[in-house]
Write a structure and sequence with these properties.
The protein contains eight helices and eleven strands. By secondary structure, the protein is of the alpha/beta class.
Length: about 220
Amino acid sequence: MPTSGTLAVDGQPVVFSSPRDALDAGVATVYQDLAIMPLMSVTRNFFLGNEPTVGVGPLRRFDMGRAAGIAREEMHRIGIELRDTDQAVGTLSGGERQTLAIARAEYFGARVLILDEPTSALGVKQSAFVLRHIIAARNRGLGVIFITHNVQHALPIGDRFTVLSRGRISGTFTRGEIDEAQLHRFMGGGDELAELSRELEALARADPAEVTSGGAQVDQTAAPH
């Protein structure tokens, strides 16, 4: 529960008791670890927890044909051409897996996407792939909350920037109110970061014999053989 403030959807205050409640209200979270199963197929992962079925009663079963067709169509829409929808998700690149998780949330009706560090473990090309899809989602009218420590990823796509420090808001800025250097300073701790820089510079200039670690002098002599 929040310590203060109100969470509202379409202007109406809401309280979510479970992730399912949030999903039903159109709020979806794509976690840093993605919540996907690398050894399961693309189709199975796309419909994980929301499987379409055929049949009734004890004869009800997963409608693989329908699910595979939808998964292929949705992946094609976001620019991923699959060799086979039965291929394991683990065979996709990191960027493709992130985008799969985002596309899955969109397909099931998300109107607000909360993305937790979606580019943290990706290279430049894979990050660009994910960022393009985030921009496309925003342009389609979805609300996007993009949590990141990478200023260069946040600035090009963000409209509003909120900086958190130790769980507290350090500042909120709209596009044009803050530049990259200022945002880095807020994220790095401002005065604390400057003090750390001065301390490190002093240590770099110091005589190695005088440098201490944890309050104890560092022994610079070689160990006997």
